[in-house]
């Protein structure tokens, strides 16, 4: 299993949380947690997707946002039939969840492809229409990292229904920075550095997710 730490940065409040991922050959667990200001509630989402080695052939997902009491789950049969919250959803056949974008991008880079197109499902609102998605390489450019240093990184753009959405900067196939249509995230190697200066509840949620499973 590979664990990834990304510091989450909002333009108005600065560093305020993290995006964390446990990546296994056939599963990815993601936690997004942040607090945008002292009076704001803690935003927390846990997501899990199981697949057969390619997230475009996902088998199951769960989405849980405790703060809003939002919870969804989906399954995908071998023939592509999708059920969401126990109800068949034929319009979601051949879709990939938004949280799977990270794995689609990683596979695209590993395969040396210039672009990948797919239909994207929003796991937080699975009743909404799926969107036509395309990840495309834009080229190498200079970009600023969390510590203020500048690196040359390959830019990859997500386009949803013809509109530019998330942007990722990658070095040697690794995402070092992302722009989530305003807020940004930056790859961080050290857990203590990731948690330093954050709201105590947010830091506790980060360490909870990063802790090794009981008995390991």
TrEMBL record:
Entry protein name: Uncharacterized protein
């Amino acid at each position: 299993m590979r664990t990834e730490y990304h510091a989450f940065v909002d333009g108005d409040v600065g560093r305020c949380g993290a995006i964390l991922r446990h990546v296994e050959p056939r599963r990815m667990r993601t936690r997004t947690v942040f607090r945008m200001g002292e009076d704001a509630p803690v935003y927390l989402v846990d997501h899990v997707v199981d697949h057969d080695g390619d997230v475009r052939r996902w088998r199951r997902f769960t989405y849980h946002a405790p703060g809003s009491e939002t919870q969804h789950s989906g399954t995908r049969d071998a023939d592509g039939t999708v059920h969401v919250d126990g109800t068949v959803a034929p319009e979601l056949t051949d879709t990939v969840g938004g949280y799977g974008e990270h794995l689609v991008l990683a596979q695209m880079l590993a395969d040396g492809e210039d672009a990948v197109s797919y239909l994207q499902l929003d796991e937080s609102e699975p009743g909404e229409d799926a969107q036509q998605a395309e990840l495309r390489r834009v080229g190498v450019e200079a970009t600023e990292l969390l510590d203020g240093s500048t690196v040359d990184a390959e830019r990859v753009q997500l386009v949803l229904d013809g509109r530019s959405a998330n942007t990722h900067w990658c070095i040697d196939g690794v995402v070092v920075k992302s722009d989530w249509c305003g807020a940004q995230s930056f790859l961080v190697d050290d857990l203590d550095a990731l948690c330093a200066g954050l709201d105590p509840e947010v830091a506790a949620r980060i360490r909870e997710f990063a802790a090794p499973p009981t008995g390991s």
